[in-house]
Amino acid sequence: MVAKLHDQPLNNSLTPPERRLVDCAVQGEMCDLHDGGEATVATMRGWGPDRRIRAVVIRELLRNRLDTPLDPIGIRVRGAVVEGRLNIDSISATHPLALDHCYLPHGLSARGTSVPGLTLRGCRLEHAHSSPIFAPGITAEWIDLSSSSVEYGGTGTAVFMPAAKVSGGLELTDMEIYSPHARALFAQGVEIGGDIVMQGRFRAVGSDPRALVDFAGAQVNVDVGCSSSHIENRNGPCFHARGMRVKGRLFLDRGFTAIAKTDSENVALNLSGIQVDNWFCLEDTRIENPGGAALGMSHARIGGSIKIGPLVEVTGGGSLATFDLDRCHVAGNVEFDDVSLLSTEGACLSLLRATIGASLSFFGEVQMRNTSTDDPLVRLDGITVGGNVQFERSTFGASRSVAISAANARIGNDFSLGSGVSVFCSTTDDAVTLMRAELHGDLNLRGVEIVNRNGGALAASDLTAVNLRIEDRASVTASSKKSAVRLYGARIKADVHLGDALIRNDRGPALSCFNMQAGDSVYIDQDFRAEAKTERDSCAVNFGNFRVAGDLTVLVRGIANGEAAKGRVNLDGMTYASVPKGLHVQEMLRLIREGSSVYAAQPYQQLAAVYRAAGHDRDVRTILMAQRRDQASGDTLSGGAQRAWVKLSGVVLGYGYQPWRALVWLVCVMVVAVSTALVLGSEGALVRPEQAGEPAGPCTVVEQVGVGLAMGLPLVKSSQPSACKAAATDWGQTLIAVGWPLQIAAWAFATLFVVGFTGAVRRNV
Question: Helix/strand/coil (H, E, C) string of 670-708?
Answer without folding.
Answer: HHHHHHHHHHHHHCCCEEECCECCECCEECCHHHHHHHH
